[in-house]
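Predicting structure from sequence has reshaped protein science. With that in mind, we have picked out one protein's residues alongside their backbone shape tokens:
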Amino acid sequence: MSPDPTTAVTGTESNVIDEDGESRFREPERRRSPRREGDRVGPTAPRVEARAAAAPTDERVDEQHAVFDIRDLSVFYGEFRAVRNVNMVVRRHEITAFIGPSGCGKTTVLRCLNRMNDLVPSARVDGQILHHGVDLYDREVDAVEVRRRIGMVFQKPNPFPKSIYDNIAFGPRIAGKPKSEMDDIVERSLGQAALWDEVKDRLSDSAMGLSGGQQQRLCIARAVAVEPEVVLMDEPCSALDPVATSRIEDLMQQIKDEYTIVIVTHNMQQAARVSDRTAFFITEVSEAAEGQGGDQRTGLLVEYDNTEAIFSNPADERTENYITGRFG
């Protein structure tokens, strides 16, 4: 099911102040799966899984810098378990890259970070994703408000069939921003996306007339226009040429001082160039379950560390084999 791009970048304020004066998300319902026996990571790679879990454990002490604290995350589509037992901490103002072969659960985990998987009827989530200490899947949390605070840029540029100006203004209008502020919001957002100088004289033109690289930067500008804290990017350069890819990578480096960025990429060179931390996922095949349904192929987080360590001194042989091209 293709996600609705509107819900990924817009939302309405629905915070409620509780008795302690704390701001909380609100939502009447949630979708969670029951805890299953055998969900914990088994002995397939104890050395690596220990390392993947150990780094976030140390970082949890520094809550000020932890944007996401992911604990024992498993995601199901019906009875199929797409990914299991992910543990990691995503830190503030860093670029975190998810790498791994196709079908290993990278995008599934990414979509959990702003509850885009809620749009898939069969999707269920087990475990916790804490955003500044608040469980994003708690029944009090409003998924629309989550998506306002945690924006998303998709694999293919998806501008609305509107003017360049209206693409950027769409989210702020829904969020109730006054008309008197709209021109400044549009200029600021396009400036952050390094697009203002290229389009400032044709804001009333259709966004569909922009080049592919310009359209993707427009989508980034549209995402930041609602002032999120986090920007998720699902292979944002896969449909772009090398020049446009370079501009997007430069843009990520420029805006990470204001936003936390999590990116899924199949381009390992891109992950090495732009990210501060890298998570490597693989697809685990269970021989015992072969031909019996259930979890024959399940995504698994193998290793999560500083990007330099992942690419120069990985702890697991599978990581080294992947980044050196021996499989994947």
